[in-house]
């Protein structure tokens, strides 16, 4: 009983930032992302009676500790849903330059969910697979689909209506993303810890939640119309509101380093010069820049010249989960 699946990471344009339920990962707000072609995980899962415990291999190295525990607990969910008690060997290869500030957990859990359910003999709908993936890592549930996907927060407390739905396929719009990798490697607050502290202590948090419905309807309109200015403005403002909540947390924190802000200013300067570009930032110092294909050369050159920038990784819209 073996299967292999491939899933891409995604970049949130409307951020998931807060849980209303930590144990089954239910969010406080809906979010929307673009699946990216450049970064992906390939995972094979083999369930067999020969195994006396789960085994997790990542990029040809045996994984133990917290990362192993999260994978083994996720396999428990798959075993439970299938009514089986077989152990498994999980073999994953990440084409996600973890340093690029992309949540490799997004492509990782989406590929694991797809390969694991297939291997154990469960044929799930995309929504069921997304709801399962959500319990591994929230943002991963959006990677089931290619192109633009919305993770509907749902209202049920058992999470049965909290999963991602497709908004537009990758072919709908060739929107490009440049990941600006900074050389700074200072320890950061994880997205899980960062959103928990913010939800629990930031006086700005309710303001963040209040702004989501309008942001979401605006950005979906912009995607439908392929209106780059509208999508870019909403995404950039949404990211700034998310990060504003961390400044009000107790204790306060920010993910931004000095080079983060230099990149943000450079993107604003590009707009001043008539080159449309917008930034978004997740739970780390790295910046992702949205741009249009015709400006790829000037965008890459400008970003690469910023002191403190280690690398630029370009990406196009990517496909949803596939079985190999
Ligand atoms: O991707 C986004 O919507 C925005 C973020 O990347 C941060 F900016 C959150 C990602 O959180 P995730 O790693 O999915 O958390 P988990 O559910 O605790 O595993």
UniProtKB/TrEMBL annotation:
Keywords: ATP-binding, Lipid biosynthesis, Lipid metabolism, Lyase, Nucleotide-binding. One of its GO terms (biological process) is isopentenyl diphosphate biosynthetic process, mevalonate pathway. Residues 7-164 form the Diphosphomevalonate decarboxylase-like N-terminal domain. Its EC number is 4.1.1.33. Belongs to the diphosphomevalonate decarboxylase family. Signal peptide: none annotated. This is diphosphomevalonate decarboxylase. Pfam families: MDD_C, MVD-like_N. It is an enzyme of class 4 (lyase). GO terms for molecular function: ATP binding; diphosphomevalonate decarboxylase activity. InterPro entries: GHMP_kinase_C_sf, Mev_decarb, Mev_diP_decarb, MVD-like_N, Mvd1_C, Ribosomal_Su5_D2-typ_SF, Ribsml_uS5_D2-typ_fold_subgr. Residues 180-298 form the Mvd1 C-terminal domain. One of its GO terms (cellular component) is cytosol. It comes from the Bacteria.
């Amino acid at each position: 009983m073996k299967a292999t699946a491939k899933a891409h990471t995604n970049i949130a344009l409307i951020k998931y930032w807060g849980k209303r339920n930590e144990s089954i990962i239910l969010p406080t707000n809906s979010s929307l992302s673009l699946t990216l072609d450049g970064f992906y995980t390939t995972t094979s899962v083999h369930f067999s009676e020969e195994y006396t415990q789960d085994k997790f291999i990542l990029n040809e190295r045996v994984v133990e500790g917290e990362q192993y525990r999260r994978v083994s607990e996720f396999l428990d969910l798959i075993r439970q849903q299938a009514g089986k008690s077989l152990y498994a060997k999980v073999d994953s290869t990440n084409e996600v330059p973890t340093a690029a500030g992309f949540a490799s957990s997004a492509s990782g859990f989406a590929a694991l969910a797809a390969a694991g359910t297939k291997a154990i003999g469960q044929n799930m709908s995309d929504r069921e697979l997304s709801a399962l993936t959500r319990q591994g890592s929230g943002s991963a549930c959006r990677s089931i689909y290619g192109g633009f996907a919305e993770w509907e927060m749902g209202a049920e407390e058992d999470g049965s209506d909290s999963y991602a739905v497709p908004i537009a396929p990758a072919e709908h719009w060739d929107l490009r993303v440049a990941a600006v990798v900074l050389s700074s490697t200072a320890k950061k607050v994880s997205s899980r810890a960062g959103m928990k502290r913010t939800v629990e202590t930031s006086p700005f948090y309710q303001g963040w939640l209040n702004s989501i419905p309008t942001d979401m309807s605006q950005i979906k309109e912009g995607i439908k119309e392929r209106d780059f200015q509208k999508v870019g403005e909403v995404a950039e403002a949404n990211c700034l509101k998310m990060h504003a909540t961390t400044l009000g947390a107790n204790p306060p924190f920010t993910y931004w380093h000095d080079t983060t802000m230099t990149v943000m200013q450079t993107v604003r300067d590009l707009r001043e010069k008539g080159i449309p570009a917008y930034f978004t930032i997740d739970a780390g110092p790295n910046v992702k820049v949205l741009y249009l294909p015709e400006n790829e050369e000037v965008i890459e050159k400008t970003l690469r010249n910023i002191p403190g920038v280690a690398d630029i990784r370009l990406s196009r819209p990517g496909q949803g989960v596939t079985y190999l």
